[in-house]
Task: inverse folding
């Protein structure tokens, strides 16, 4: 039997009283699920606006307002009642009197339950304790809640249930609701920053015939109409945006969802929002300065300050950004030089640190696992540079050391918070690197890049030198200092069966 359905059947007795009230409301001519109500004001707006207004002046002016929201508290005593309703901004107290309301309104109020949604028309006043409140002149029933809210002081305590019934967590916990108001500011700040700098927002395909543009495992599905196998994109249109560079668009970006069929962790999701930009005639060093400015603006917009605490690190985004060299920092931290060691030595170091890994993975993939261990102790802000060419076939090589690529990653709170590089625009070199990636895949590397012949062909028409960069909502989760699943409104959950 389905546990969710069984659970709802058990709740039916608790709901019966509320169901009975629906019938009583209908007898009174009241629609239990309401209709239009013209809201004129919101709770916090009123409290801020009138916080310093003397009680006597409020009584004299009789300021008319109309508010609506969910009943969060209720208490009645004889011919009077108090409740707090919660709207988009917060909560405000409502005072109700039988001799002020109509007989019908007061009767409907007496039948309300915590969780119901109501509209109130009345006047602003200050209670004897100084609380800005509304004296109701009209009580308008808008929606009957058939289920009771979680217990006031504890809400939902089960972590899985919080994510499964996120709407209840948002009702009961204001800070959860505010996360997603901040998230909107996070993405709008990034978008505005790019548009101000003359980047064109574009849309590229989500369904692709080749899972190119990143080292990740794709979701695969079948396209019935075309009778072909397709993949959900693993990058934010990376290869498509580079084709737009070929086409003559010099600055593009896209913000959207992408999908990776990989594990769940505090900083990994299978579907998430990402931004990628491409900038003709720039390189990764120009990109470092550009992205530094973007991260500083975003942090201040979301947090209201340049300083924040995350994962136990104290971070100031306005501080001087460090430069971390891939080869050097690994050698400093674990005593291995990646260009003068063996796969066995890397596995031995991972075993020593009790890190899980796939022994079938190639040497360079294991080096990448080792780097991810090293970075956990780095607070940032800073840039990782000097990555080996084997870990990414798409950047240009560094002229001063062709074993490495012209790539930078932003490091914050022990993790990667953005990745960018000077794009490889040499189709001959790229073809050879794709061959190397194919060999890595044949050795068992599931994250090896696929060969994309159409992209190589586009490069043969000439793509300008360019810088590309991507950042995901992992950066937002670090600002919030929460696991990334808690920073998604409705994360994918395994069904209850």
Result:
């Amino acid at each position: 039997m389905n546990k969710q359905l069984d659970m709802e059947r058990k709740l039916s007795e608790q709901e019966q009283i509320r169901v009975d009230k629906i019938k009583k409301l209908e007898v009174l001519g009241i629609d239990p699920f309401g209709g239009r109500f013209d809201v004129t004001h919101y709770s916090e707006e009123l409290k801020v606006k009138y916080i310093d207004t003397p009680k006597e002046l409020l009584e004299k002016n009789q300021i008319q307002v109309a508010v609506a929201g969910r009943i969060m508290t209720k208490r009645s005593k004889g011919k009077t009642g108090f409740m707090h309703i919660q709207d988009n901004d917060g909560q405000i107290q409502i005072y109700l009197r039988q001799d002020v309301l109509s007989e019908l309104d007061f009767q409907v109020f007496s039948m309300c339950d915590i969780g119901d949604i109501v509209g109130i028309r009345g006047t602003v006043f200050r209670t004897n304790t100084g609380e800005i409140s509304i004296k109701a002149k009209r009580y308008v029933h808008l929606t009957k809640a058939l289920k009771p809210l979680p217990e006031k002081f504890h809400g939902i305590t089960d972590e899985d249930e919080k994510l499964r019934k996120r709407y209840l967590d948002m009702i009961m916990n204001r800070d959860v609701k505010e996360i997603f108001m901040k998230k909107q500011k996070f993405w709008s700040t990034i978008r505005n920053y790019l548009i101000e700098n003359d980047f064109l927002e574009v849309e590229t395909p989500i369904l692709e015939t080749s899972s190119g543009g990143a080292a990740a495992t794709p979701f695969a599905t079948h396209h019935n109409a075309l009778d072909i196998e397709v993949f959900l994109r693993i990058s934010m249109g990376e290869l498509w945006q580079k084709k737009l560079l070929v086409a003559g668009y010099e600055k593009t970006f896209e913000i959207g969802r992408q999908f990776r069929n990989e594990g769940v962790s505090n900083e990994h999701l299978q579907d998430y929002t990402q931004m990628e930009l491409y900038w003709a005639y720039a390189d990764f060093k120009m990109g470092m300065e550009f992205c530094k400015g973007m991260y500083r603006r975003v942090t201040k917009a979301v947090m209201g300050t340049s300083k924040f605490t995350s994962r136990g690190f104290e971070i100031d985004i306005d501080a001087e950004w460090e430069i971390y060299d891939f080869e050097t920092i690994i050698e400093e931290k674990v005593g291995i030089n990646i260009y003068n060691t063996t796969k066995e030595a890397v596995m031995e170091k991972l075993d020593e640190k009790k890190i899980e890994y796939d022994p079938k993975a190639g040497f360079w993939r294991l080096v990448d696992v080792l780097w991810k261990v090293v970075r956990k102790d780095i607070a940032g802000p800073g840039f990782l540079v000097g990555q080996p060419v084997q870990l990414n076939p798409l950047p240009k090589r560094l002229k001063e050391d062709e074993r490495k690529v012209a790539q930078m990653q932003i490091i914050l709170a022990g993790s990667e918070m953005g990745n960018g590089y000077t794009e490889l625009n040499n189709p001959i070199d790229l073809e050879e690197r794709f061959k190397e990636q194919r060999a890595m895949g044949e050795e068992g590397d599931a994250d090896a890049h696929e060969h994309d012949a159409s992209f190589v062909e586009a490069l043969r028409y000439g793509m300008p030198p360019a810088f590309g960069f991507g950042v995901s909502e992992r950066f937002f989760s670090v600002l919030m200092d929460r696991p990334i699943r808690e920073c998604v409104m409705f994360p994918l959950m395994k069904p209850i069966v």
User: Anything to note?
Assistant: The first strand starts at residue 64 and ends at 77.
